[in-house]
């Protein structure tokens, strides 16, 4: 009978091939057992090797290349280096000795109520509880530090911008009414005063240049984020493809280790603060999986910690570790979006290849604890009184604008389907462009850590220049809305968040800068909630401003995804999609001469966000529930379902989802749910692709 290719090297110690997570499963001993009965194995089950003979490329998403003896090697340039990774062991009965041990436990528990099985089950639920708590705290700290860094950067840059406006006002005032520029002596005197004032502040004033300050913050934060990826290359990217492969049964090295967790969380904090078109939602899924893997195994090589509670509870095996990682992925989505049900469905739809009813309950419990932890830590200042839902990540509060009626008409569902098709096309173009760019990186950049770091710095400078030039190109000041008597507190707060950018603060704002010089969460809420439904409502974002923001932002997101920083694509896709959808709604209102026939532009912004994200990731069920939980409005159930299905069908005509594309680019032997077409056509069986050497 054909079997997988095995060699004696595979029976060596753990350290040869088990840099797989926070802990290593003790299952590769040549003697067949270790210190405790839970480690009893047989060579048949413990050494299944998945080989991809045609792959030459390193499996990591880091771009730095593999590690060997502490140094990076150019695996992508070695044609003879095949991809060699192990699969997980999912057999519960691993040996006759282990089955005898289990039978002995059953015999000793006869007539007892508090049996070994109940103790193990209680410990399993307790560990799941700990996973939810720790992931909630990590997400809270990451979000808090990111907002602090971003607000520090934007406050400093805006202060320098406003100082420049005040300088221009002084020059105009000294010039008198007839001469707006004033005399040459007046200008020289004022410039001298400004220079002396800036020199007194030191280098931190950047000579009064807002652009230099903006460039300094952006490049510094991006460089720090890339440094953590240099320390642990696996922490680069979103981590969702790696977790998807891990749950598929592939034992990727170092994916769920504590060092990866630290570099991932700290790195994504700085990459988001760097103003790059990235999000922290994907890395939160990865961090939740690492936390779950570490808690379940109870030991880590990074700190040299090894506890006994996991060792003697039979959790140090691949089956238990896989189930905990699935729960951790659900907790990660919950901590990112505040969507526990969506998190469970995400882990089911996009993550685990194996699922059971018991695992559903545990994932639900873990997501519930994560959400409860977020409520507890974010409402600590009110002594856990009435919860402030605005402190959780959401799309804001969606309400019906016309009483109990929906915000859209039934016939507009056809328009939502069209937007879904357009979003699927945008996602397909995005995926294809990023795929070709990733292939180019693998050939020319990924093999060198120095090139990867230089690429991050260069792209950060490029993004900074584009982000600063776009508001200057717009160069138009729009008056702030004044008649806001019927507006909600949410809308009034969003008006206060509009960025003046060389306009009169408190009276005017720059439309493009209001979407760039603020955090992505606020920009998404502005696109969703500013009123624009009829002739009585003013236009907060014009069509030209939305187009000027949408095109460069999507272009920058395409380039950024894949560089050596921890990054996610959920929020960039939502933000660009919201701009696209609001642009469609705005054009429809212009076509209708703002008579109120169509739904408000915020509704179209929500559909656009769903369409672009669905076209990129090709998620349907879980993404629908995540968006519904984030909006909190059930009137959008059918529109979101139709939009996401249209985006998925349209995108699948051209290519696969971005995560599946990157899995194939890394040559990971991912086991698809469907049999490949070539295997069905030629009736290929497993024995024809497996080695007979044992």
Describe the structure.
The protein has 694 residues and is mainly alpha-helical. The chain has helices spanning 43-46, 96-108, 116-175, 184-201, 210-231, 240-247, 258-273, 281-297, 318-337, 340-351, 357-378, 413-444, 449-474, 489-496, 513-516, 520-529, 543-560, 570-591, 601-617, 621-631, 637-654, 658-665, 677-682, and strands at residues 49-52, 66-68, 71-73, 83-87, 250-251, 299-300, 305-306, 478-479, 508-509. A three-stranded antiparallel β-sheet has the order 1-4-5. A hairpin with a 2-residue loop joins strand 2 and strand 3. It is globular.
List the helices and strands and how they pair.
Layout: H1 43-46, E1 49-52, E2 66-68, E3 71-73, E4 83-87, H2 96-108, H3 116-175, H4 184-201, H5 210-231, H6 240-247, E5 250-251, H7 258-273, H8 281-297, E6 299-300, E7 305-306, H9 318-337, H10 340-351, H11 357-378, H12 413-444, H13 449-474, E8 478-479, H14 489-496, E9 508-509, H15 513-516, H16 520-529, H17 543-560, H18 570-591, H19 601-617, H20 621-631, H21 637-654, H22 658-665, H23 677-682
Antiparallel strand pairs: 1-4, 2-3, 4-5, 6-7, 8-9
């Amino acid at each position: 009978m054909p079997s997988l290719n095995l060699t004696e090297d595979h029976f060596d110690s753990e350290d040869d091939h088990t840099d797989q997570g926070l802990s290593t499963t003790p299952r590769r001993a040549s003697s067949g057992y270790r210190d405790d009965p839970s480690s009893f194995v047989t060579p048949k089950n413990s050494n299944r090797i998945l080989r991809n003979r045609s792959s030459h490329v390193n499996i990591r998403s880091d771009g730095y290349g593999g590690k060997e003896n502490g140094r990076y090697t150019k695996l992508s340039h070695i044609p003879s280096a095949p991809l060699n990774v192990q699969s997980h062991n999912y057999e519960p009965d691993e040996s006759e000795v282990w089955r005898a041990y289990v039978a002995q436990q059953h015999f000793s528990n006869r007539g007892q109520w508090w049996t070994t099985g109940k103790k193990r089950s209680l410990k399993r639920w307790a560990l799941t509880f700990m996973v939810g708590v720790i992931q909630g705290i990590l997400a809270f700290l990451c979000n808090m530090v990111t907002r602090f860094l971003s607000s520090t950067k934007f406050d400093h840059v805006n202060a320098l911008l406003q100082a420049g406006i005040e300088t221009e006002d002084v020059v105009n005032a000294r010039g008198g009414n007839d001469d707006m520029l004033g005399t040459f002596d007046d200008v020289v005197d004022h410039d001298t005063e400004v220079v002396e004032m800036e020199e007194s502040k030191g280098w931190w004033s950047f000579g009064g240049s807002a652009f230099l300050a903006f460039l300094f913050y952006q490049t510094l934060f991006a460089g720090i984020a890339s440094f953590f990826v240099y320390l642990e290359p696996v922490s680069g990217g979103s981590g969702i493809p790696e977790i998807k492969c891990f749950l598929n049964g592939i034992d990727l090295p170092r994916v769920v280790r504590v060092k990866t967790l630290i570099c991932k969380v700290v790195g994504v904090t700085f990459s988001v603060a760097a103003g790059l078109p990235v999000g922290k939602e994907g890395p939160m899924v990865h961090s939740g999986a690492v936390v779950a893997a570490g808690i379940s195994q109870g030991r880590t090589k990074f700190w040299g910690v090894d506890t006994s509670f996991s060792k003697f509870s039979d959790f140090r095996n691949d089956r238990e570790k896989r189930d905990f990682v699935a729960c951790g992925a659900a907790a990660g989505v919950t901590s990112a979006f505040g969507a526990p049900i969506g998190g469970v469905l995400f882990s089911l739809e996009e993550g685990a290849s194996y699922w059971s009813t018991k695992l559903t309950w545990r994932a639900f419990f873990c997501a519930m604890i994560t959400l409860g932890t977020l409520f507890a830590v974010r409402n600590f200042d009110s002594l856990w009184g009435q919860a402030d839902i605005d402190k959780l990540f959401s799309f804001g509060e969606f309400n019906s604008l016309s009483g109990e009626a929906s915000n859209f008409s039934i016939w507009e569902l056809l328009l939502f389907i069209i937007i879904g098709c357009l979003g699927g096309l945008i996602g397909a173009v995005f995926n294809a462009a990023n795929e070709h760019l990733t292939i180019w990186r693998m050939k020319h950049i990924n093999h060198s850590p120095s090139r990867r770091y230089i690429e991050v710095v260069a792209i950060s400078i490029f993004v900074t220049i584009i982000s600063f030039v776009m508001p200057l190109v717009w160069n138009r000041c729009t008056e702030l809305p004044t008649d806001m008597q019927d507006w909600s507190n949410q809308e009034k707060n969003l008006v206060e968040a509009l960025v003046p950018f060389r306009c009169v603060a408190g009276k005017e704002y720059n439309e493009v800068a209001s979407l760039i010089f603020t955090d992505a969460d606020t920009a998404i809420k502005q696109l969703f909630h500013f009123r624009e439904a009829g002739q009585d409502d003013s236009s907060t974002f014009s069509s030209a401003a939305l187009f000027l923001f949408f095109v460069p932002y999507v272009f920058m997101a395409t380039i950024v995804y894949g560089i050596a920083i921890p990054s996610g694509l959920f929020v960039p896709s939502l933000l660009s999609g919201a701009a696209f959808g609001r642009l469609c709604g705005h054009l429809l209102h212009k076509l209708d001469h703002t008579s109120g026939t169509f739904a408000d532009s915020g509704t179209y912004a929500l559909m656009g966000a769903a369409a672009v994200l669905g076209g990129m990731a090709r998620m349907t069920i879980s993404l629908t529930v995540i968006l519904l939980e984030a909006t909190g409005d059930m009137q959008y159930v059918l529109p979101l379902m139709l939009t996401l299905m249209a985006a998925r069908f349209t995108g699948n005509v051209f290519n696969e989802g971005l995560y599946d594309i990157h899995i194939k680019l890394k040559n990971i032997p991912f086991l698809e749910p469907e049999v490949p077409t070539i295997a069905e056509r030629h009736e290929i069986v497993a024995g024809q692709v497996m080695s007979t050497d044992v």
